[in-house]
Amino acid sequence: MNESTTPKREGSLEAPTRHPLNWKDSEFYEEAPLFEELERVYDICHGCRRCVSLCDAFPTLFDLVDESETFELDGVDKDDYWKVVDECYLCDLCYQVKCPYVPPHEWNIDFPHLMLRAKAIQFKKGERKLSHRLISSTDMTGKIASIPIINQTVNAAKGNPALRKVASKMLDIHPAAELPDFHSKTLRKRHKNRQPNGINAVEAGPTRGRAALFATCYCNFNAPGIGDDLIAVFEHNGIPVRLTDKESCCGMPKLEQGDLETVDKLRQENIPQLLGLIERGWDIVAAIPSCVLMFKQELPLMFPDDADVMKVKEHIFDPFEYLLHRHKAGLLKTEFHAGLGTVAWHVPCHQRVQNIGPKTRQVLELIQDTKINAIERCSGHDGTYGVRNSSYAKSQKIARPVINRVKKMEADYLVSDCPMAATQIAAGLELKHGETSPLSLLRKAYGV
Fold this sequence. Notes:
single chain; Rossmann fold; 6% strand; 22 helices
């Protein structure tokens, strides 16, 4: 059979490959080539529609087509193309688990990075709301809101309807959105003088047995207990833990806004700190999947020729990924204080796209009398999307199937490696127990 008669495959059957993001090229910010690519990709998506069950970007696109005069993309006003962009929160699931046309397929579809390019152009033109810039400035917000007196006021304001209305108008935060607490005793303050215990580090697979914790904005300011649990679990398993000397936001909130220059600035602040630790024999761990993904995927795609970025990529781990490497070498303790019963485990999108497999489930299933039921569906929170006035209702709609599945399980616990997703899901449930972090559950099972 010659090449001209060889049938085309419906989609790529090979492992997907990701092309670097050419964000420094001048053409990247030009609207004409952007719209040419949007038209090409939207037309392919319209003909496929496999992603309709993911975020609201795809139903928005398909509704625009179906409600047009031609029932095709040529009937859609190009100004409406931005409506699709506004609904994408860069979860990456369409690329990783749904799209049959990602490279190496000849159609070369990378929907998330196309949306990111569009957001970057919006940001460059000054079209991203000031309020969204503020709420994505997590370092600044956390530092201000964790000041003791301000801290009490901010936390009290969450339950004040009048102040929530003010926040709705000024910051575009929906009055009913679940908001995190801010702690004056942050994770970094709790462990300011922490010295790693004297246990000798033992290598196992790619891990070197010494972990430096990248606290992350959320664990530092909003959920320091998760960091406490990670430290307790790791040290219980003979892994010395320290915090990084300094850190800034990983950059994911700014990436989602299309603010790539600030992402670069944060890279310049974080990478030298992490690289120094790696060169002194430390591995890096972070308890927020989005932060790990930033260093494992997004920064390497933005800076593919930066050897330092690539070295950090090879030495940063999801906590349960790290623990399972230790278990495979016979170094994880499996004597537990008590079983956990039935656990509903929500798998965050940004953990799924790391392609590490269900490491959290594999570790928790080592606990006796424990059944783990995985839910691989988006919670709908996704950074600022779950709290903004314009997207709050859609976010709740996306979360509803997850909440219903947890209810049907009659689970003893609900957990998610993403604490923001856990909060979103838990708000729709009456839980028997308060723990929503798998690290907290593992610590509980150990009795540490």
